[in-house]
Structure formats: C-alpha cells, structure tokens
Design goal:
5 helices, Aspartate Aminotransferase, domain 1
Length: 131
C-alpha cells in the first residue's frame, strides 16, 4: 500500500470512528457535538478529523488541535491550555472547568462563537510551536 493510499485509508477510518461515536450518543448530546464539530471545522478549515483516546477531535499540522466529547449532562472541549484559560477567562466564567477541560451543560445553548475563538486560539498555539 502506498503512503498516499494508507493516509487516505487512515482518514476514512478516523471519519468512521467519529461517525460511530456520534451515532452512539443520545440525541441531545449528539446534536450538541455536531454543533461543536461544525464550529471547529469553520474556525480551523485546514484541521483534519481525528479519533484518539476514545473521543473525536481534530489535528492541525500533525498536532492535536482539539478534542470534544459527549457525556450525560454536558459536552467537553480539550485541551484547555493555561494560555487559553487566561485569554478567555471572562468568557469561560460560569462554565465548569477542570485542569484541561471546559464543560458546556446540555441544558444550555452551546456558545458557538466561543468554541470558534477557542479553536482559532489553539490553531495559533500550534502555529507558534512550529515557528
């Protein structure tokens, strides 16, 4: 198998894994995850869909851009780096957070503009790592 064919096969497999993950979610969680997925794609159109650690995400320039996951009461974004937490501290106020995660309750609207800004900030962090 050529390297190009192998890469195409790997991308197709990742896409199937993401689709399977989304299909397995309860309807409300699945809808929220699709909104997040679309926001990330819009913010980072060069990002490549990825599936690792049992959750979907995107890579950019071979590095993890962002993961997203669904849970019973919320959806989460990872990683929330220290720089992103500082940059978006005011906007993230009120959302449940842990060391590297922000959680958006399913009982509330997903803050699409914030998700896009976080994805763009992560893309900028990745570009800085490559500089």
């Amino acid at each position: 198998m050529t390297q190009r064919v192998a890469a195409t096969h790997d991308l197709a497999q990742k896409k199937r894994q993401v689709q399977g993950y989304l299909a397995a979610q309860p309807p409300k969680t699945r809808a929220a995850l699709r909104v997040i997925r679309g926001a990330i794609r819009a913010a980072a159109p060069r990002a490549v869909e990825h599936f690792s650690y049992g959750i979907p995400g995107f890579t950019l320039d071979g590095r993890t851009l962002i993961w997203y996951a669904g849970w019973k009461q919320h959806v989460s974004l990872y990683p929330m780096t220290a720089a992103i937490k500082r940059t978006f501290a005011r906007e993230l106020d009120g959302y449940e957070m842990s060391k590297g995660t922000v959680r958006f309750a399913l009982s509330e609207r997903i803050p699409i503009p914030l998700v896009k800004r976080i994805a763009k900030a992560r893309a900028a962090e990745i570009r800085q790592l490559h500089s």
